[in-house]
Amino acid sequence: MTGKRTNVLTFLSLLAFLFALLAGSQVPLRFDLTRDRAYTLSPVSRNLYAEIEDEVRITYYVSGRLRSASPVPRTIEDMLGEYAASSRGRITLAVRDPERADLAGRVEEMGIRPRQMEIMEKDGAVFSTVYTGIVIEYLEKTEVIPLVFSLDSLEYDVTSRIRSLIRDRERTAGIIIGDSFRSRDGDYGPAALAMLRSGFRVLWLEAGGEIPGNLSALLVLGGAGELDEWALYHIDRYVRAGGKALFALEGVDVDRETLQARRVHDRGLLAMVASWGAEVKEALTLDRPALRIPPYPHWINIQAQAGRADHPVSARFEGADLFWPSPLELAAPAGVQAVPLFTTSNGARIMDGDFVTAFDAPSLYEQDEGGGETFVMAAALSGIFPPWFDDGGEGRPSRIVVTGDADMFSSLALYTGAMERNTAFLLRSLDWLANDDDIIGLRGRSRGGGRLDRIADAGRMAASARFVRVLNMVLLPLGVLAVYVIIAGRRRRGKYRA
Questions:
Q1: Which pLDDT value is given to residue 15?
Q2: What φ, ψ does residue 137 adopt, rounded to 5°?
């Protein structure tokens, strides 16, 4: 090939590359190579247009300073643009700078609050007040996402809110705190905040009061030793009428200050849930993947692989931390299906005699290397549940989720760093209870790795460490050397032939 022809081909290649860049700026083109296609809209989001009768207006309010300093707003805008592109004209998108358009006051009235963020500028990093939130409007109704700065839950947040607007169905979760020693803000404030951010309206209910029939789901947090028959009657009537509920219960109560443990004197709640197919045992569960150093087997680290992969609630289970939990025994009555959601490891034990719960006595909890069993710690039940109070009414199909830990969604999870994972399980349970099975999988599609303790077995952990060392210190260098030898050999043969 002559030098002139080579120059021409080089020039044409550069020209084609330049045209490709210009076309890409006008027609977005992305290749989503993530395992779950986290940066691509799922079919349920692309098919929303079939349910939309009028126009849905999405407005992304983002400060210009943030947009120019970070690539994240651009990725958010791209994903929102996919909603508009796939909606056949039913969804429109507008991107506005509240400060430039003099809309800061109005934006804050709608619920988007200014945030202090560190922004890199020419003179260095500075803290600046910026806006980044989404407003979705349909007819006269509005939904607001106050803060969005990643794609982790963006599709779920947008799709669930659009669906709530077009179906005119506000997703409301009612909460009954059954134990008087637990408080709304101190114990369950973080979980309630996570529910609010996911688009649920939280309604705190008094035990024994009327339970609204239009709830998306009811949460009963503890209360086996305190809820009386009148409170149980309202819960039974709600579930029998087709209401969905999550029960976070325990068979043994442990005082957080003294660590004194005692069996819960059940006033009927545990018995009622057991008659529906999930018995919460009056025992404590101990497991090898324990929390704290030294290990405290009463605080269990449930591994991600312990979740049941064929159920919507636990299909993308991220793991969870449990605190003095009680095991479940499933025995579903006729017309009810019971499915375990996650279990302990195969090295778990139960303590049902003298309860020893002190933090400073780890030797009392030592387990034999080959012993232990696997226990169910959470379950999903669906069907027509038998009546606990025989009022002569005919039951309707319902769903419930039962866990053996009333502290799972409490502020204790903040101390072990498990609040995000525990509330992720809570929110997926609420989606399933609210019959939103098709959008459960949208949660956490782009969520990254996790904690560094996913492998609990010591043998597997050592084998994985050996493999990583061999890969990095032997196989990769040998691979590079092999590539060099092959390339050098080809060059020698080329020179010899020339």
A1: 66
A2: -125, 140
Pick from 33-47, 102-116, 198-212 the range whose average pLDDT is largest. Answer: 198-212
CATH class, domain 28-155, is alpha beta
pLDDT given for residue 480 in this prediction: 75
Per the CB < 8 A criterion, the answer to whether 90 and 58 are in contact is no
The b/e string for 133-154 (b: 16+ C-beta within 10 A; e otherwise) is: bbbbbbeeeebbbbebbebbbb
Beta carbons of 177 and 202 less than 8 angstroms apart: no
Neighbours of 207 (CB within 10 A): 19
Above 60 in pLDDT, residue 448?
A: no
Residues with Cβ < 8 Å from 356, sequence gap 6 or more?
364, 365
Calpha distance 70→346 (Å, rounded) = 46
User: What pairs with residue 351 in β-bridges?
Assistant: 284
Taking alpha carbons only, the member of 326, 160, 171, 341 closest to residue 251 is: 326
Question: How many of the other CB atoms lie within 10 Å of CB of 33?
Answer: 7
**For the chain, what are the domain ranges?**
28-155, 170-440, 462-490
Distance between CA atoms of 420 and 423, rounded to whole angstroms?
A: 5
Residues 405 and 277: their CA atoms lie apart, in Å, by 17
Look up the CATH number of domain 170-440.
Answer: 3.40.50.880
What's residue 442's pLDDT?
76
Q: DSSP letters of 172-206? A: EEEEEE--TTS-HHHHHHHHHHHHHHTTPEEEEE-
Burial 14-30 (b: 16+ CB within 10 A, else e): eeeeeeeeeeeeeeeee
Q: Which residues, in sequence order, are bridge partners of residue 402?
A: 247, 379
Cα gap 3→21, rounded to integer Å: 27
Listed in sequence order, the residues at least 6 apart from 49 whose beta carbon sits closer than 8 Å to its beta carbon are 86, 87, 88, 90, 91
Cβ atoms of residues 273 and 247 within 8 Å: yes
Helix (H) or strand (E) holding 82: helix 72-85
Instruction: Identify the band that residue 177 occupies on the pLDDT scale cut at 50, 70 and 90.
Output: very high
- Dump the DSSP string for 211-237: PPTT-SEEEEES-TTT--HHHHHHHHH
Question: 198: pLDDT confidence band, cut at 50, 70 and 90?
Answer: confident
Sheet holding 290-291, edge to edge: 290-291, 296-302, 320-323
Answer whether residue 120 shows pLDDT above 90: no
Q: In the sheet where 141-145 sits, what is the strand order?
A: 91-96, 56-62, 132-138, 141-145
The reported pLDDT for the residue numbered 452 is: 46
Query: CA-CA distance, 440 to 314, in Å (whole number)?
Result: 10
Nearest-10 crossing angle of helices 154-166, 72-85: 40
d(CA 205, CA 98): 38
Query: Is the whole-model pTM more than 0.85?
Result: no
